[in-house]
Amino acid sequence: MGYEIKEAYKVLCDQLADRGIDVDDVKAKLKAQDVETPSWAYADGGTRFKTFKQPGAAITYQEKFADAAQVHKFTGICPRVAVHVLWDFVDVEISEVVEYAKSVGVGVGAINPTVFEQEEYMYGSIAHPDPKVRQKAVEHMLDSVEIGRKTGSNFLSLWFADGTNYPGMDDFVDRKHRVEDCLKTVYDAMPETMTMGIEYKLFEPGFYHTDIADWGMACKFAEKCGPNAKALVDLGHHARGVNIEHIVATLIDEGRLAGFHFNNARYADDDLTFGSVNPYEGFLIYNELVKAEAADPDLKIAYMIDQSHNVKPKIEAMIQTVEAIQYTYAKAMCIDRERLAKAQAEMNIVDCENIVSQAFFTDVRPLLHTVREEMGLDPEPLQAFRDGGYQQKIAEERGIRDSGGGLG
Amino acid sequence: MGYEIKEAYKVLCDQLADRGIDVDDVKAKLKAQDVETPSWAYADGGTRFKTFKQPGAAITYQEKFADAAQVHKFTGICPRVAVHVLWDFVDVEISEVVEYAKSVGVGVGAINPTVFEQEEYMYGSIAHPDPKVRQKAVEHMLDSVEIGRKTGSNFLSLWFADGTNYPGMDDFVDRKHRVEDCLKTVYDAMPETMTMGIEYKLFEPGFYHTDIADWGMACKFAEKCGPNAKALVDLGHHARGVNIEHIVATLIDEGRLAGFHFNNARYADDDLTFGSVNPYEGFLIYNELVKAEAADPDLKIAYMIDQSHNVKPKIEAMIQTVEAIQYTYAKAMCIDRERLAKAQAEMNIVDCENIVSQAFFTDVRPLLHTVREEMGLDPEPLQAFRDGGYQQKIAEERGIRDSGGGLG
Amino acid sequence: MGYEIKEAYKVLCDQLADRGIDVDDVKAKLKAQDVETPSWAYADGGTRFKTFKQPGAAITYQEKFADAAQVHKFTGICPRVAVHVLWDFVDVEISEVVEYAKSVGVGVGAINPTVFEQEEYMYGSIAHPDPKVRQKAVEHMLDSVEIGRKTGSNFLSLWFADGTNYPGMDDFVDRKHRVEDCLKTVYDAMPETMTMGIEYKLFEPGFYHTDIADWGMACKFAEKCGPNAKALVDLGHHARGVNIEHIVATLIDEGRLAGFHFNNARYADDDLTFGSVNPYEGFLIYNELVKAEAADPDLKIAYMIDQSHNVKPKIEAMIQTVEAIQYTYAKAMCIDRERLAKAQAEMNIVDCENIVSQAFFTDVRPLLHTVREEMGLDPEPLQAFRDGGYQQKIAEERGIRDSGGGLG
Amino acid sequence: MGYEIKEAYKVLCDQLADRGIDVDDVKAKLKAQDVETPSWAYADGGTRFKTFKQPGAAITYQEKFADAAQVHKFTGICPRVAVHVLWDFVDVEISEVVEYAKSVGVGVGAINPTVFEQEEYMYGSIAHPDPKVRQKAVEHMLDSVEIGRKTGSNFLSLWFADGTNYPGMDDFVDRKHRVEDCLKTVYDAMPETMTMGIEYKLFEPGFYHTDIADWGMACKFAEKCGPNAKALVDLGHHARGVNIEHIVATLIDEGRLAGFHFNNARYADDDLTFGSVNPYEGFLIYNELVKAEAADPDLKIAYMIDQSHNVKPKIEAMIQTVEAIQYTYAKAMCIDRERLAKAQAEMNIVDCENIVSQAFFTDVRPLLHTVREEMGLDPEPLQAFRDGGYQQKIAEERGIRDSGGGLG
């Protein structure tokens, strides 16, 4: 006879009880988890060498929302879709987009201005030497604020491709001042309820310097805007070796963490599936989040996914990602914090490490299984999606087409 | 009432059965696992900034063997101790060392010549421009071969600090030829049963170039010696990002993998506990080993630990390490290989990844618990060691002393 | 009164004389220098985020050859153009291409098969699990060999995008064997005069593993083919920190250096202008080449440029690159090798370093000025090209168009 | 006939005149340059594997000051010596040290508290969980402030080894708050004229996290102290790829750059000679400094050297370093800034890059030759030092001894 999930769940509950963990509380938090998926991840994406086209990949905003709705339908925790303005809001009434999203069961999430794809931006957008180009970028961001107002989205998600490729190409400080001015103009136009998330990135597409290169720069720019401007952490945007969980803890303590772009990376901004390369890193980041949540229940952090599934089927990959995030969050709640605090106070490093890694290796699948059942969902989202036949349907109906979208 | 290991074991066995895995076979392999611990890890070690002294840290070879014997006593899979010639065989009869080791229940493992600590080696050993220095290094290695012969150890473990700090300091090709000559001389003196493990390292203590900098160079030097010379993989000796499991698979396929120095690293040659920084990496390496073992049961790979527990109690840290290695090996045997092969053939990447990560997240603690009981050991080695009182005893008897040993 | 190049040249000659350097010999070598430019660098290229279109960027092979001919016209050392088969040889008689090249004053250089842009290659080419895909790739390479035969090009330049994005996606060793088989088939079809250059790369587009990831793997694959298969070093394809000049010296000593793809990189495969990020690195590589040339005048190394000038005007950037390569080569010949050998023998590291860096900081512009004049060229190639009006002409005639080419 | 420095100087002056550069101004700035050398660099230093002992290496503060005085004697720009409190101020009257320094012709520079070498600091100093340990560290720093007051030194140079080696070992936020408190206490005790330089470092000796890991964290801690607390940039303390000149420009613009620890690094905190690995990086940093100086003549930046010359003779290496810094500064003043600004405004990237690199490749040796002569110094400091016989004298008198000092 085979593996019985009920038995496994009982064993897990006993384990957690031994660690003094309130399973009901963990389940409540897992049910309340909320992660945004990005519209562009349902479209074809690729590397500079090739964008492979997948049957059924989305092009229109309707297709993207419909695909995202599948992810929400089967996971129950992805009710909103982050949008990229020039990819999703061209020649369309904003209210139409909102209505359509609603009609398929999702909402509009973070608003991402698109300021890197037009020919004017060859040498940058808000750091560009030419004030006309900066003005264009600022106006597009002001439009984006307006879109947020109309869609009810309160998160403005800013990523800039601005940087230089060669020493001497431009002056760092001049560029810094231009960026400060542009961001402040946009910030001042935001409604009070809106958060500005400022993304930083070590490199790409700038290969010599990037104007917002690390969390420190994002934080400095945010401070010059005001309290609702904060840093946005994309897990793939750091130099190798950098301890991201330490940055996350620092930003939270400084009141400057806007949220995340989840993914995973080994070499550069690889945009791989969350947890696929170094799952322990994701867990250690969630460890900081669980602690911060416990310390401040009003803490607001935007959880968003930003991946590029070049060789995986897009919707399946997104469901796999959401599951990975759920397991990671659950595991971070499985740390015996009382024992850990005691071991830390005694400087018993061996025990500290074991207590943390034991939580990481807790098999939380039976817990999520139960949570999903209690949420009225199929306990195996990926299989349920596959069984639903949606992928075959879109592959057939949409076929393989030239992509209209971009990638983030 | 709490967690019951027996129930957990039953759940695990059911899981493994569903994956078509023969639990008895897995248990047999876990019982046959064999990992060497290094004598120098029981002595004080540190960074260039400070070596913190721990109460009870070993100085003499007797103390190191006695400490290592504790690790074997509680884990059952560490019957041998790797030795460093100038730290363990100075002014002593070899037979005495062998006898002493035997008396405490362990044997002498890999022989590590020590060719980096004497003033002559300021500019290198076997790559040194001065033939007298090279001669000295070669003679020490020939003595080490002799020690191996007398101790019955058949593994010569070679690490060289040779490198340069500044461009122009020496000629790469001249140095290459010197290294080739010296290694060949030593190789030719080895008995047929001996393996020469040639360790490579990206940097440190050389900060411009290292003469044996990567697996390719180690492999080239090995080929020039003969079939029993092979590359030795220290997990902390690679550039960031390098895929170690890919190198391991390549070396095995080329017949040139001598074995491992296990540890873990985030930044450089950090020499941290195996699995403590990126446990998935260790698992993916073991995945290659499990596959290779299955394909060739006669495959001989030397498993050795090389860590520097600067702030952890040494014996506890070693037991923790051995447990981590056991769990990792066990997890790698929990992959449903039939399903994986099928998913690979279908290029179903989402399933491939899930099958692999599911094995990684299998909670194999109940399995090791059972294995240890069947081996007549305490199922919780770390706790058992702590309960045994050995650490208190040596802390008291030996106290805090100036270290005599070195660090690797 | 201003700077007089003649005075500067005299000062330089005196300096070099003091170092025992034969200026005539240096000049002869600079005149004989020979670097290939790649056809694809004259077409629009970009990052995954955007390919900015430049006025006049080449699309057809005719345009690419014509542009490359400009580089040769003004530098005098770029007589051949590396071609990418699917970008330059589609629906065209090979003889036509050869004729056209000749008509504008250049020849066909290295033949680069294109095995990463078609939908079949989504999961790889010669490492692909499906034998039909491998067969397609092999056939394309065999066609490429044939093209080489017909164009008189004796260099087959192989880069594969093969790799995986996720652990478990495929088996490393199976893939290795597939690659070995395919390469051997192609090698066996090559004429004796042809060299197979096997390029390695740490990552991209594979983000978990790359089948030919480092020089060691390229070398192993080459050895399995035969003596005319060798490793091709692209300066941007290494992990951070890796000492490329050490690898170059090693490959030369092993008889396995096919040649170079010159460029420069700070973060990843940035494909920036040679010498623009870390000019000392290029110099130290050339130092090895100058030594190797001196030791073996018959040494054959293919010098090729592979850059992606996303934001620089393409032809200007190529001339700038060729100049940078000339200065670097010249500087490497300015090392006082007698004094260096003496300092090395005395282990006088301070002097070793100073002798090398002094050569690097030698202002060799007056030397190249003279060399160009003696070659009948304008001494300032970039200015001369600008004055020639070619760029304005193609910008006007060709305009801004959708690109047909790709990027390497 | 050989190279004539006078002719070379004339050629250089003509070159600079063509670039619109005022040579007299450049010379004045070079004469006013001021760089501190560190007392510990005259003592034996090494890696964790071995500290090689050099004949004549300094042990006492007297020896260190005497050696440093040689560097100042021959370069004329190193009038002060940075001190490490526990290495230079143990069991001695502060006034004696000051007097002695004066007597040999140098002064006391930056005060470096030593809070990482005592057994209490095994788990950190100001981030340590135990308030008694933090108190000890704070008291030592308060003593250091007092030393600064008495020696007339107005720079408190803070580096902390604080960090953790394993996940879970301690809580990031708790540690952050401890660091904030301790630094504020010390800051509040500083005289108004004193600057607190807070050094950051990616890793080592902490191998999992470092409490002050990057410029952003150093800046945050500084802001919590007050306006005289600033970040201290050690060139070897960044993750690979990080653009240091961009950070320098950012810190200056934020009013938070305390100064530098000059050295060079390829892999980690290699502590090699400034300019020896990547001279262009040093030049690009100086480019920012020259611009900032021009914009604000009152800008105060502390220039200090922090290197570990494991295999180079210490005093020679220091003179070589100072020369490298002089050449770099001079080159950065050789940029034709008017042409550069114009090229930047026109987004002529090719020219921008060429203008910058042309300055880098300017042979400024004749300029420094002249500057030194005008300062009454020997134009060739290294040779002059060698000719002076000091090294032989100390080698003979001091011999090879067990080191008493440490390394930074």
Structure description:
Four copies of one chain form a homotetramer. Chain A has a single domain (33-334), classed as Divalent-metal-dependent TIM barrel enzymes (TIM Barrel), CATH 3.20.20. The termini of chain A are far apart. Helices cover 49% and strands 10% of the residues of chain A. Chain A has 408 residues and is an alpha/beta fold. The first copy, chain A, is built from 16 helices and ten strands. Chains in contact: A-B, A-C, A-D, B-C, B-D, C-D. Chains A and D meet through helix 7, strand 7, helix 8, helix 9 and helix 10 of A and helix 7, strand 7, helix 8, helix 9 and helix 10 of D.
Overview features:
three-stranded parallel beta sheet; homotetramer; globular; TIM Barrel; alpha/beta; five-stranded parallel beta sheet; 49% helix; 10% strand; 408 residues
Q: How would you describe the shape of chain A? A: globular
Number of strands of chain A: 10
Proportion of residues in β-strands of chain A: 5-15%
Cα gyration radius of chain A (Å): 22 Å
